[in-house]
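Let's inspect one such protein example.
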Amino acid sequence: MSHSRTSRRDFLRAIACAACSGGAAALLPQLRMMGTALAGTPLTGYKAIVCLYLAGGNDSWNLVVPHDAARFDVYSTARNGVFSGSNPGGLALANPADGDPQIVTDSADANPATNQYFLHPSLVSAANFYRANQLALVLNAGTLIRPIDMNGYADHTNRPPQLYSHADQENLWHQANTNAKSSLGWGGLCGDYLQAQGANGTPIGSGPQLSLCISIAGANRFEIGNVVTNPYQLSSSGLKTLSGVCNPTCSGNSQVRDTALNALLADTYANDFAQEYSNTFGRGRELFAMLDPNLGTGDYALTTTFPDTTLGNQLEVVAEMIKLSQALNYASRQIYYVRLSGFDLHSGLMSTNPNSTTDQAGLLTQVDDAVAAFWTEMGVQGRQNDVVAFTASEFARTLQSNGSGSDHAWGGVQWVLGGAVAGGRLYGDGNNGVGISGFPNQAYGDAANPNPNAFSRGQLIPGIGVEQYAATIAQWFGVSTSNLNTIFPNLPNFGGTLSFL
């Protein structure tokens, strides 16, 4: 039947009441998931990528630091000296003694014994993954239109829009291109392509297929596709029930409410918005019914204990979804998004409380512990060769201190973890600065001794574009070489992908 304007208002009012009851939040993210998988040749095997977004602009030049004396001295000077009680404005980490377990080398370096590095002392598990050749460090990556130095920066057409803006730079990282007007993410566009190749599995019964893109951290641009792929959202505690109705069992008056809600969802509406809202709500309920009986329970429960932290809880849900999806053939490719905020550290950067959520040491401890649990569980599931986890953050921060923290900058360090990763390596552009293995020159100097790749406070011009970084992951994930330039339109400016996968 076709409803009048009054009855449509009643429908929306009823749904709004249900949302206010606290249960609808898990269902509404399906509003933009339209269409079904396009026909295509099924992909072989299973692969998942997990984006770990470090929100706020991670001060990533303290993730990996040169250990050899000459380059450490350059780093320490650029960071206003080593942080200590007598030098609270210093942002440099202390250089560990030879033999410290955080010290690593680049396995491809011709002089590994001389050219050493150390990882931030909070990244204990990450250092172990690096030595096991499962983790790679990507140096001086950032938003770029094309490779430039200080001379190229003077031409405004060479610059990505809105440098140093959190919101804008986050969007550009999620897009992996510098079109400020785009609303599509590279994860979603990869999902579009792979869904057309048959990456979705078989639905249960007549129910909907699960989106290839799954967020445990709310709405994000990274997972928004062009046609058929939009993220399905779960919370860090998994699925949320709809209050006052059957989920799927009933009690008290919930059966009456459930029957009324189902009748509303079964109707046909003349207003397109109301109809799509109804369709989306219905799909959300079907997906809940499909996932809820098994997610994280029974045969699909995890054996690994995850830390009870923001990121630990998110990655636990990712691990549960990977296990369930594989057991029940929900998809052969999956794209996950998790997020940890707090990295906008204009102050308090160098305090060392491992349990703090307001300094880098505590935040990186949370990352390290959560990723370690996730990677252990991937080993239990036999999926380490099938999963790649990678970091992203809107920008690095100034090498120079502002007193007790650092300010917004540009190029920084990211890391990639996976059994398929060519790890134990530092990947740079090979030309930026005078560093070894592409490690940039951090001496930003002065007018008399300028560094062509660094501004006056140590804001490094990236040597690697986000397109290169993301396209390398997408290519491993199954996107064909011929389609990479469509998803990453600036990729030809950089000469192709990197070699860490």
Remarks:
- The two ends are 55 Å apart (CA to CA).
